[in-house]
Design goal:
Length: 171
C-alpha cells in the first residue's frame, strides 16, 4: 500500500489514466478499420501510439509507488498491455489490407459516373433511332418493334454502340 492517502490517490489516478489510454486505443480501432484513406489511417495510428505511450508511462510511474506486494499485479498489467498492443498491431495490419472499404468507396463514386455515362449513351441511341417522339411508333410494345427487320437491325447496331460506350466509361 502507498504510504499516504495522497499516494493512494496518486496510484488510483495513474491506474485510471493507463486504463483510459487503452480505452482510447480501443475507441480508435473502429474508425481505423472504416477508414479508406492512408493518410487518415496514419493519423489515427499516431494517436494510438501516443495513447500507448501514456499507458506505458503511467505503469512506469506506478512502479515507484506501489508496495512490493503489488508488484506482481503491476507486472501482470504490463504483460496485458504488451499483449493488447501486439493485438492492436495485428489489427492495424489487417485494417490496412482491407480492400473492401476502398472497393466500396470506389464503387459508390464510380457507379454514379458510369450510370450517368450509360444513360447518356442510351439516350443518344434512342434519339438516333427515333429522332423525335412523333416518330416513335405508338400503340406497339418493344416485341412489336423487334419483329420488323429494319428496327431490329437499328436496335442491334445502337445496342452495340451503347455497350461499347459503357465499357469505355468503365475503364
Amino acid at each position: 500500500m502507498p504510504a499516504t492517502q495522497a499516494d493512494t490517490w496518486r496510484v488510483k489516478a495513474l491506474a485510471a489514466t493507463a486504463v483510459a489510454a487503452v480505452r482510447e486505443i480501443q475507441a480508435l480501432q473502429a474508425p481505423h478499420i472504416a477508414e479508406s484513406d492512408d493518410a487518415a489511417m496514419t493519423r489515427i495510428e499516431k494517436r494510438m501510439t501516443a495513447a500507448e505511450g501514456v499507458a506505458r508511462n503511467e505503469l512506469e510511474m506506478l512502479a515507484g509507488l506501489v508496495a512490493p506486494g503489488s508488484r506482481a499485479q503491476l507486472a501482470a498489467a504490463s504483460t496485458a498491455l504488451d499483449r493488447f498492443v501486439d493485438l492492436n498491431t495485428q489489427l492495424i495490419a489487417l485494417s490496412r489490407r482491407n480492400t473492401n472499404v476502398r472497393s466500396l468507396a470506389l464503387s459508390l463514386g464510380q457507379k454514379r459516373m458510369l450510370t450517368a455515362a450509360c444513360e447518356d449513351s442510351l439516350a443518344r441511341s434512342r434519339t438516333r433511332l427515333w429522332p423525335s417522339e412523333a416518330s416513335l411508333p405508338r400503340g406497339r410494345d418493344s416485341r412489336d418493334l423487334s419483329s420488323s427487320r429494319g428496327s431490329m437491325a437499328a436496335i442491334a447496331a445502337l445496342d452495340g454502340d451503347a455497350r461499347t460506350s459503357c465499357r469505355r466509361s468503365a475503364r
